[in-house]
Design brief:
- The protein is an alpha+beta fold.
- 35% of the residues lie in helices and 25% in strands.
- The strands form 7 sheets. It has a 6-stranded antiparallel beta sheet with strand order 3-2-1-6-5-4, sandwiched between helices.
- The two termini are 82 Å apart.
- The N terminus is likely disordered.
């Protein structure tokens, strides 16, 4: 490590140096600080063959630190470590700043932030032996900063190289000191100052001499120096060395000691600059240069030197400091701008919906500009439509949306000219556009920026950034907002396309799901569906409640695997198929068998889970089959809760029939919960854990309130498993059912003989039962006709045994069963036919009728609507269809 010339130093004077300096001198004096520094680095690196370069700034008084202001040819992994250098560090830039002369280091040691355990980061392609030459950038009161180049260790810059670098540094200093401030004011008083001022002793003999005898601590001065120190506020005697410790600025004491110790140990020349307290309380700046005198044994016995007043001028120092601060501020501002653009770009890239865009702007842009309000608006037919807002009252936003705005208004001008409009206050808005005095926005905010949002060559809306008080945006801030408006416009256009597509998808899905659940005597049901929190794709979760014959009810829930329009369409196909198959009154396993065939016909990539079950209010039993679907959770009337175990059949599309079935007795007041995996499965919660939580929540909710309304039960489960503040990755469907079991007195059944007299016996039995149920004569006549025709049909076309059953609920159901599998059909009879009109009569007299089959035969059933006054459960609030 050396501050002098090495034997193998690089010394290759170039004929281009003068040309480079002339190019630098020809540069516009109004060039910005960062541009000046980059230009200096470019020419310095090109001339010396540097591998990379840096410029640090930090005039005296800037927190004792040097801040990286510019770099060239170096990656951020390297410059990041050199971002801040303390002026007391033992690295070339700090040494050059302290000593005021070029410093060469043959090895690349780093700032104090580096330690032996954390060596400097390796640079790809950088030779192993790299040195650094640092040259101070001179200023009126000491260096403004330092210019450093990385060069191979064997190519140490020689005198001509150093002289060239010093010329470049002086040029940079002059440019920095002449630079016009960003606020547009004129250059400061240092415009004509020499960067060399006061770093050398005055030539007019104004420097004083001094001598210190270390053995006695006595200081002797020349007459010139006595005049100089007469203004110093000594507490003790000025000719005693210890007295100086009391008048030197506390921050400079340690520095003087280190400089002196270093000079004494090396037998070198001593030079230092320090501040001293004047009698008026202010501080002046002295510079001293001394020689170490040693005896024959090498012991330091005396120090002699000269000292002079650097004629420090507060105004000049402040101006120099201002130049440095402006450049550093510009660097930091550029870094902040880049960081803000990067942050907003990343946030907008992830933004999916319009509200995501609003949130991204609110989190990134508003704090950066200290803004308090944001409006994102589209414009249709000369009217504003607020797409999103931050910092405004809901009532104001509602009042603003749909308001017509004049062409001669800030919004109108911004959209017409595609140029932003900036206003420092509300008064400025009204002064330029008087009609805006009555515009609703005038009552909400003060300073505002109106940004046209242009994407794909067309205006799609406006962004309005607002402030609670007056606010003048600088030129840089306006430029940055203009640039950001382009990013916002592109993100907003994407988000609106997504919102439109998502809205259409949601509407499609809503059309495919039940709009309301039917009111049924056998049960009440409540449902909930929640789409996934993110992504434009809709899901394939679905459910349905389907009335069957004899007041039985089919309950079905399913989940088409995947997300998208195709999956939603598949869900629609399945729901339609289930309803069609349910009309055939098929058992659950048969239903799943046929659905499996439908899914298989769609292709190999289609799969769906499904659970289909039938609840019979006569027995209170629920019989179901599942194809890969989560098991139902039940809470029986006796208070026992649990999920129903069933063999795990594969999903539809991958299953091989037959499907297993199971039956559970629910009874009157039992609760049945059907759901998709999106309800119970979440981040950090698997299906089994979620199912256990669902079961526990259901039991806890009804333990204290067994008769809790079904809507409240549903909402309790949703709050527990689908919190509003936690977005879900998969859509979720929930169907909650409370069952009813018919009382024995509402059921009547008989066995009839296989004889012609069976029809007459059936009529008699019906008449008696209707009387017992207190149903009027109108039911007696029609019911006798229905039963007579159905029984006669069995006698003529089927075989026994014959069964007759009647059910009383919201309808009167008559069933006639036999052992035949022959399908009864309504046929057109000729006028001369004696028979064949029985089923026509049944169809005419009943509300609906049909046939269902079992392993032992078939049952023909017919329903008649009972008037509300005679309907059972007439006080139940669920007699009307329930909106989902």
């Amino acid at each position: 490590m050396s501050d002098g010339l090495a034997e193998g130093s690089r010394e290759q004077p170039s004929g281009t140096r003068n040309e480079r300096l002339r190019l630098l001198e020809a540069m516009d004096a109004r060039g910005e600080g960062v541009e000046v520094l980059q230009c200096a680095l470019t020419h310095a690196m090109a001339e010396l063959g540097g591998l990379g370069g840096m410029v640090h700034l930090g005039a005296k008084g800037v927190a004792g630190e040097l801040g990286l202001a510019a770099s060239s040819g170096l990656p951020s992994t390297f410059t990041g470590v050199w971002n801040i250098i303390r002026q007391g560090d033992s690295v070339a830039p700090a040494e050059a700043t302290r000593l005021g002369r070029p410093v060469w280091r043959s090895s690349l040691s780093g700032p104090a932030s580096w330690s032996d355990e954390t060596p400097p980061p390796a640079l790809p392609g950088l030779p192993a032996d790299v040195g650094m030459i640092s040259v101070p950038i001179p200023g009126p009161a000491g260096p403004l900063g330092v210019l450093s180049l990385l060069v191979p260790s064997k190519a140490e810059p020689g005198p001509d190289d150093r002289a060239f670098l010093q010329d470049v540094a002086r040029w940079a200093a002059g440019m920095l000191l002449r630079a016009v401030p960003d606020d547009g004011s004129e250059a400061g008083p240092l415009a004509a100052a020499s960067p060399h001022a006061r770093t050398e002793p005055p030539s007019d003999g104004a420097a004083g001499t001094w001598e210190i005898e270390l053995s006695t601590g006595r200081v002797t001065y020349s007459d010139t120096l006595r005049e100089l120190i007469s203004e110093i506020d000594f507490v003790g005697r000025a000719d005693v060395l210890d007295s100086w410790k009391d008048v030197v600025h506390p921050d400079d004491v340690e520095k003087i000691g280190k400089d002196l110790s270093r000079a004494a140990s090396l037998g070198d020349e001593y030079e230092s600059e320090f501040r001293v307290r004047r009698r008026n309380g202010s501080y002046g700046r002295l510079r001293t240069r001394a020689r170490i005198v040693q005896d024959r044994s090498g012991e330091v016995v005396r120090i002699t030197g000269r000292v002079w007043d650097t004629a420090w001028d507060a105004e000049e120092d402040h101006a120099a400091l201002g130049s440095v601060v402006r450049v550093l501020s510009a660097v930091r501002a550029a870094s902040a701008r880049a960081a803000l653009i990067d942050q907003l770009t990343r946030a907008l890239t992830e933004a999916v919906t319009t509200q995501n865009v609003v949130s991204a702007i609110a989190e990134s842009v508003l704090p950066a500009f200290h803004a308090t309000g944001l409006l994102l608006c589209s414009v249709r037919g000369g009217r504003l439509e607020v797409l999103g807002s931050v910092g405004y009252r809901r009532q104001f936003v509602e009042r603003l949306s749909g308001v017509s705005f004049p062409v001669e208004s800030p919004v109108g001008q911004a959209l017409r000219t595609r140029a932003p409009q900036f206003f420092a206050s509300e008064e400025e808005v009204v002064a330029r556009y008087p009609r805006m005095a009555d515009f609703p926005m005038a009552m909400e905010k003060d300073a505002r920026a109106y940004l046209p949002l242009v994407a794909s060559g067309r205006v799609i809306g406006a962004g309005i950034l607002s402030f609670s008080g007056p606010r003048h945006l600088s030129r840089e801030e306006r430029t940055l907002l203009t640039a950001l408006s382009g990013l916002i416009a592109q993100a907003l256009e994407r988000a609106r396309l997504y919102d439109d597509a998502a809205t259409r998808a949601r509407e499609l899905q809503a059309d495919l799901l039940p709009r309301e659940l039917p009111a049924l005597p056998a049960l009440t049901a409540a449902a909930h569906y929640r789409p996934a929190g993110y992504g434009a794709e809709i899901g394939g979760d679905w459910y349905d409640v389907i009335p069957l014959s004899s007041d039985r009810v089919a309950l079905v829930i399913g989940d088409v695997m995947g997300h998208g329009i195709s999956e939603a369409a598949t869900m629609g196909r399945l729901r339609t198929a289930v309803r069609t198959l349910s009309d055939l009154d098929l058992p659950p396993d048969d239903i799943l068998d046929r659905l499996n065939s439908i899914i298989g016909d769609l292709g190999e990539d289609y799969f769906a889970t499904c659970l289909y079950g039938i609840y019979d209010p006569v027995t209170g039993d629920f019989t179901f089959a599942s194809a890969g679907h989560p098991p139902p959770v039940v809470l029986r009337a006796d208070g026992i809760a649990g999920h129903l175990a069933l063999a795990a059949n594969p999903p539809l599309g991958a299953a091989s029939p037959p499907f297993d079935t199971a039956t559970v007795s629910l009874g009157d007041g039992g609760l049945l919960v059907l759901y998709t995996d999106g309800l119970v499965e979440a981040m950090g919660r698997d299906v089994d854990t979620g199912t256990a939580q669902l079961t526990r929540t259901l039991a806890d909710a009804l333990r204290g309130e067994p008769a809790m309304p079904l809507d409240a039960v549903r909402d309790t489960l949703v709050r527990a498993l689908l919190p509003e503040d936690e977005p879900i990755a998969d859509d979720a469907a929930l169907l909650v059912v409370r069952t009813r079991q018919f009382a024995p007195e509402d059921i009547a059944s008989w066995s009839l003989p296989e004889e012609p007299q069976a029809a007459g016996l059936a009529r008699e039995l019906v008449r008696r039962q209707l009387a017992a149920w207190n149903l009027g004569e109108e039911f007696v006549i029609t019911t006798e006709l229905l039963v007579s025709e159905l029984v006669s049909n069995v006698i003529l076309h089927a075989k026994g045994p014959i069964g007759l059953r009647m059910l009383r609920s919201w309808t009167l159901t008559c069933e006639v069963s036999d052992a035949s599998l022959t399908t009864p059909l309504i046929r057109r009879s000729k006028p001369t036919d004696e028979g064949g009109r029985g089923l026509q009569l049944v169809s005419a007299l009943s509300q609906r009728w049909g046939t269902r089959y079992s392993a032992n035969g078939k049952t023909i059933w017919a329903e008649q609507r009972i008037s509300p006054q005679r309907t059972l459960y007439a006080t139940d609030a669920d007699v009307r269809p329930r909106p989902v």
